[in-house]
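TODO from last week: model NADH dehydrogenase [ubiquinone] flavoprotein 2, mitochondrial.
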Amino acid sequence: MYGIVKGLLQLPGRVLLKQPARWKLDTTNMYDKLKFEFTEQNLCRAKEMLTNYGEKEQRGALLPLLDLAQRQYGWLPITAIKAVADMLKVDHFEAFEVASFYTMFRMRPEGKFRLMVCTSTPCFLRGSDVVLNTCKEVLNLNENETSSDMQFTLRTVCCYGACANAPVLGVNDDIYEDLTVPAVEDILSCLKNDVIPPAGPRAGRFCSEPVSGPTTLLCPPTPPGYCMQELCKPKKKC
Ligand code: FES
């Protein structure tokens, strides 16, 4: 891996990094040797995505294309990052910086279910430490560890933007909200049986409405165009 990073750093205009260890990359595996190519179907998807961007703004598709590559491969080997960068004519190093910045990207193989416990302040105040400890105990994993059967990876993240429904646990693309210890245990037991439980709040509420039920908009909203028919009726002639 370091070989590739070093290669990237030696591109024209780049200064060679003196202390490779600070990147904390796994240099014991030869992940950089893995070949990556979009499948025919994903290549079509990628081309379709690119039509959303102007000719000079193609680099704006970096995140969606990295995401597509990750969905195809399960994680993002550096060869996939380079393939996407080449496709968008983006500097390899810039693409690597983007991929390594966002927690949504996996820079090495991880478990089939990636559990991400939000530990930011609102979730912490609502018991995210209990959620995290429950995950650790039930799965016998520590933070940032992957189970030996590659089923689970446990991580912490900062804010899903669902603070009103704290505490929150993310599993791959879904988030589970209003968590309690029994709720977390139930979710984990479903996942252990390869069943994906319905995402969303576990307090019986809809989205982020008040737990005690709606306090405003107590009657059904009027449908679009309400009273418009009346206005459109021809006026009576006097
Ligand atoms: S702090 Fe957990 S979702 Fe915002």
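Done. Residues 230 and 236 are 12 Å apart (CA to CA).
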